[in-house]
């Protein structure tokens, strides 16, 4: 298999400017990554709010518009409001706009204690369009889950329905055989023991208590976010779209994004259970999954980087070479297309990546590629990873060797060359 570049690659810029930084120290007014509404729901590779705040503080002027084409949980927009920056968010996950709307809204006038009696008294049931629902939920729990979701689906829009959603999603996951610590829908001995322990308790009372406490937490988090005095800026938020070929209809000053991790591109599988209980059909969820990068056919594009070519040559297995190529064709192909409509800065936050235990310097590849097509590398800000829920092993599972992946994440700062 040959490399994709058909041009003379620029020399590797090993001396490119970089500086170490602690975004968490700079954004000390955000005491944790889950402060306010930044952590209402567990989301794979969630953008750290302190990083977004620091990036916008350094590089966005008042009124600058921001685009995040891989928006995930929507953190870029949630933070952008606190700095009065208009924004546009895209993501393949159709739940992103819902999570984002919940994060920025004023807390509704809802009493958590009065919500639970209505839930408990509801008698209609709901069953998702899911042939394996009995595999993922114990038969004892299904009637209770069905009544709770029927109650939710029959609530009027707004108010109680808004703040009940995430607590109900969390409780449904908790009362399933899914191992929530894994990034894909999967059972494990740990998750099966959790269900066994629940069955030994007053699991129904615990379920409704989870919902009550969850709603109270949502309301408290929304009040904390509103205390940050977010501005009512213009925004455009779209989920369920394919970023890899989505046209951009307006210009923006800044593109700020954290692209999908090379090792985890199947985020829809993480949210399959949520979507099905929300009323999506199984075929619809399957079609969404086919648009994720490991399965979607992407056009071959030129990657203007000698580092990219060097690492491609080191990968021997054909399927891993193709995975590597498709990742860069997809992510860099989309960003190359979108940068044409960006006026001032590309801010790319990239995390650890490896192929068969070999660290891949995505930040360096980004610097080389975008330097070749009209951007100037201003700096790379290097931030240590304080904790990592994804992809951390003492030994690499494939090789048994100590895990060599990076312990830092990089914000690559590119400025439009004039």
Plain-language structure description:
This protein is of the alpha/beta class and 418 residues long. The chain has a domain at 18-93 and 232-269 and 300-416: Rossmann fold (3-Layer(aba) Sandwich). 40% of the residues lie in helices and 13% in strands. The strands form two sheets. Strands 1-9-10-6-5-2-3-4 form an eight-stranded mixed β-sheet. A two-stranded antiparallel ribbon has the order 7-8. Mean pLDDT is 90; it is low at 1-15 and 387-406.
CATH superfamily of the domain at 18-93 and 232-269 and 300-416: Vaccinia Virus protein VP39
Overall shape: it is globular
Would you state the CATH class of the domain at 18-93 and 232-269 and 300-416?
Answer: Alpha Beta
Fraction of helical residues: 40-55%
SSE-based structural type? alpha/beta
In short:
This protein is of the alpha/beta class. The protein has a domain at 18-93 and 232-269 and 300-416: 3-Layer(aba) Sandwich (Rossmann fold).
Quick tags:
418 residues; alpha/beta; Rossmann fold; 8-stranded mixed beta sheet; two-stranded antiparallel ribbon; 16 helices; 13% strand; disordered N terminus
What is the strand and helix layout of this fold?
Layout: E1 18-21, H1 23-26, H2 49-59, E2 66-68, H3 75-82, E3 87-91, H4 96-104, H5 112-121, H6 133-136, H7 142-154, H8 160-174, H9 189-199, H10 203-226, E4 235-239, E5 252-257, H11 267-270, H12 272-277, H13 282-289, H14 306-314, H15 318-338, E6 342-350, E7 354-355, E8 358-359, H16 362-372, E9 375-384, E10 408-416
Parallel strand pairs: 1-9, 2-3, 2-5, 3-4, 5-6
Antiparallel strand pairs: 6-10, 7-8, 9-10
């Amino acid at each position: 298999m040959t490399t994709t570049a058909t041009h003379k690659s620029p020399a590797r810029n090993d001396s490119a400017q970089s500086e170490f930084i602690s975004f968490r120290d700079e954004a000390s007014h955000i005491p944790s990554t889950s402060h306010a509404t930044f952590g209402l729901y567990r989301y794979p590779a969630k953008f750290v709010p302190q990083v977004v705040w620091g990036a916008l503080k350094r590089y966005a002027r008042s009124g600058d518009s921001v685009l995040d084409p891989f928006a995930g949980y929507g953190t870029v927009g949630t933070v952008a409001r606190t700095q009065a920056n208009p924004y546009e968010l895209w993501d393949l996950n159709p739940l992103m706009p819902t999570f984002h709307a919940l994060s920025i809204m004023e807390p509704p006038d809802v009493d958590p204690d009065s919500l639970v009696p209505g839930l408990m008294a509801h008698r209609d049931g709901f069953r998702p369009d899911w042939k394996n629902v009995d595999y993922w939920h114990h038969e004892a729990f299904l009637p209770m889950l069905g009544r709770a979701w029927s109650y939710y689906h029959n609530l009027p829009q707004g108010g109680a329905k808004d703040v009940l959603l995430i607590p109900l999603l969390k409780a449904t996951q908790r009362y399933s055989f899914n191992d929530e610590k894994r990034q894909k829908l999967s059972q494990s001995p740990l998750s099966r023991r959790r269900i066994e322990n629940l069955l030994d308790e007053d699991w129904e009372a615990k379920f409704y208590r989870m919902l009550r406490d969850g709603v109270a937490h949502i309301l408290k988090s929304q009040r904390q976010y509103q205390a940050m005095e977010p501005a009512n800026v213009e925004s455009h938020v779209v989920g369920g779209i394919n970023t890899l070929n989505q046209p951009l209809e307006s210009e923006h000053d800044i593109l700020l994004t954290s692209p999908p991790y090379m090792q985890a591109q199947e985020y829809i599988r993480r949210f399959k259970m949520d979507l099905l209980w929300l009323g999506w059909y199984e075929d619809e969820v399957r079609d969404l999954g086919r648009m994720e990068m490991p399965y979607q056919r992407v056009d071959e594009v030129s990657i203007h980087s000698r580092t990219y070519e060097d690492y491609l040559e080191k990968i021997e297995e054909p399927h891993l070479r193709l995975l590597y190529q498709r990742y860069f064709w997809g992510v860099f192909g989309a960003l190359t297309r979108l940068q044409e409509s960006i006026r001032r800065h590309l801010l790319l936050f990239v995390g650890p990546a490896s192929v068969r235990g070999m660290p891949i310097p995505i930040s360096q590849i980004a610097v080389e590629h975008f330097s070749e097509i009209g951007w100037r590398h201003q700096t790379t800000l290097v931030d240590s990873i304080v904790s990592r829920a994804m992809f951390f092993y003492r030994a690499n599972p494939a090789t048994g060797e100590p895990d060599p992946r990076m312990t830092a994440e990089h914000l690559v700062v590119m400025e439009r060359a004039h």
